[in-house]
Here is the input.
Amino acid sequence: MSTRLRVASLLAAVLPAACGGVSHTIRTDVPAPRSIAVLPFGGTADPELREAARSLVQSRLRSQGYQVAEAAWTDRLLSEHGWLHDPVQFDPDALPVGPAIAALGVDALAVGTNFSTSSFNVLILRRQAFGGSVQLRLGDGTTWWSAQHSASTLGGFLLTSGQVFEELRAQGAHGTPMATLALVDEFAGDVAGTVPAQKGTERPSAGPALSAIHMQHGPAVAGLERIVVEATASPGATVCCDLAPYVEGVPMVAQAGRPERFRGSHDLPAGTTIGSIAVRARDAFGRETRAEVKP
Amino acid sequence: MRAVASACAGAAALLLAGCTGVAVDVRAEPELERLRAVGYRIAVMPFQNHAPDEGFLSSTLAPVGELIALEGGGSATMRDRIGPMLHDDVIAWLAQSEFEVMDPWTAATLLTHAGRSAAEQQDPARAVELARELNVDGILYGDVQRWNRSYYVLQSIVEVALHLELIDGGTGKRLFHTTRTESIGSGLTGGPTGYVSVATEPLAGLRGSHLLYLTRSVARHAVTDLNGGMLGTQPGPLTPRLSVVALAKDHMGPFRKGERVDVIAVGSPDCDVRFDVGRLRVDVPMRQTERHADARGERATYIGHYIVDAPDVADDLPLACTIQRGAARRTVTSRYRWDGTLALDGSLSP
Here is the structure.
C-alpha cells in the first residue's frame, strides 16, 4: 500500500468519528422518570475515567432536575443483592433491570456501556477520544432514552496547517490528564444535555428516621471485647456508628427479616470506656440524620 | 543576524501570547485549605451575567446554535441561559472537589420559601444571612463577565470569563475569589500558512465548538482554583500514598458470621485510612498503630477490621484501602487495591 493510500485510509477512518455529535433517541409515549440510579459504567476505558464519567453524568442529571441516588448507596444495594462484585469488571448488561429497579426504589437505571478511550499522535495527525453509550432503562425493560457519543479532539499539522501556533499548543496538551478529563467532561455534558429537563420532581426534605440506639458489650476474648451497637432507621438507609473517641464509621447492617433494624460490631481493648455513641443514617439522595447517646 | 533572530523570536512570543490565552486573578485566604480539609459545606447561588453587550455572542451568530440546542432552556434568551449553564458546569465539577455542595434545588426552594428575591440571593453582602438560613458554611457566588467575540477580518477572538467568589457564612469574610478569562484567537496570531487560511481562519474561529470548549474549560479551571489547584481525580505530589494493602491474616474459605476481616496498610503517616470490602461495606475505619523511619520518608502502619454479620453474603469482592489527609469526606482520596478477592458468608457460623 502506498504512503498516500495509507494516509487516506487513516483519514477516512478518523474523520467520521471526529465529526459525530450525540446520537440519541427518546420515547415520548411513556412518562419521564423522576428518580434515577446511575450504575457503574462498563467498558474497556480506565476504571477511574469511567468513575469520573459516572460522577459527572450524575451531577448533570441532577442539574436537569432528576433525583439521582448517590453512587455509594446504589453500589451497596447492588452488592447486597449479589449483582455487583468488582466495580471494575461490572457488566451492566448482565443486570436484571426490573428486579434492580425494585430493589433500588427508583424509576429508572442509567446504564453506561462500551466506554473506551483511544489516543494517538503522529504530529501530522492526532486524535484522542472518550466515548460510550448511556441508556435510561425503565422497570418494564424498555429504554426511555439512550445516547451514544464519542467526545474527541482531532488535529495535527496535516489538518490544522492554517494555525501552526495553535497546533503547537495542542500538541503539548495532547493526552495529559487534564485534557483527558476535559474529554470526559465534554462527553458527560453533551450526553446529559440530550435528556429533557425534569421540572416536576418533588424532593422530600426530611432525612431518614433514626431511633432506639442500643449498645451492648460482648465477652472479652484475648484482651478484646466486642461492642455491638443496634439502631432503628429507615429501611434501605446506609447506617454507621461512631464509638467516640476511638473509631468513626463502623458499618451497620440491616438484619434479615427486619430491614429497619441495623447492627454494627467492633472490637476494642477490654475495659475501654466509650464516651458516646453516634449513629448516622444516610438515604439514597444524601440526606443524613445523626443521633448521639451516652452508653 | 543575531538581531534578526531575536526579533523573530520576540515576534513569535508576542504572537503566541496574543492568540489562545488564559488570564487568572485568583486569591485564596490561608484558612481556606484548612477549612476544606475539615469539611466545608457550601451553597451555590444563581450566577449573574455582567458580560458586556458589545460583541455579546447572541443567537445572531449561527454556529452557537449547537450550544443552545445542547443546553436546552426553553424560550429564554441566550443571555438568560448563560448564567444557569455555567452554574450547572460549576456544580458538576464541585462534585469532584473537596467541598460538600448543598443540593441547588433544595437551596433555591428554601430561599424562595424564605422570601428571598433573586437579587438578594446574588448579593454577597447577604451571605451570612443566607448561610444561616441554609445551614451551610459558605456561599459561592458566580458572575459571567465575558461571553464575547471580536472579529477584525484577519483575526477573531472568542472569550469567556467567569468570576467566582466564596464568602464564609460565619464571618462574612471573602475566603476566595477568582476571575478567569480564557480566549481562543484565530487568524494571524494562530500562525496561518497561506493566503486562504489568513482569510478563513478568523471566520472558522467563531464556530460554536470553540465557545463550548471555553465554557467548559473556564468552569472546570475555576473550580480547580477553588479546590486549591487540583480536583479529585488528579492526585498531586502531596497526595498521601500507601505502599502495602493486604489481609492481615490468611483465611481459608469465606468469612463467616462473627469472624473478622483484618486489614493492614502501610503508607503516609497521620492520615485517615479506611478500607472497602467491594462496594458492600465501605469506609471501614482503620487506625494508625505505629510509625517507621524510612529512607523515603516516614511511614505508618494502619490496621482495621470488619466483623461479618448474618446478612453479609457475597463473593469475589475486591479489597481496597483509601487514604486521605484530614477526615473530611470529600478531600482528595487515593485508592489502592489488594491483589486478590474475598468472600463473605454470614449465614454460616464459625
Observations:
- The CA atoms of residues 35 and 107 of chain A lie 5 Å apart.
- The radius of gyration of chain A is 25 Å.
- The longest strand of chain A covers residues 108-121.
- DSSP finds six helices and 13 strands in chain A.
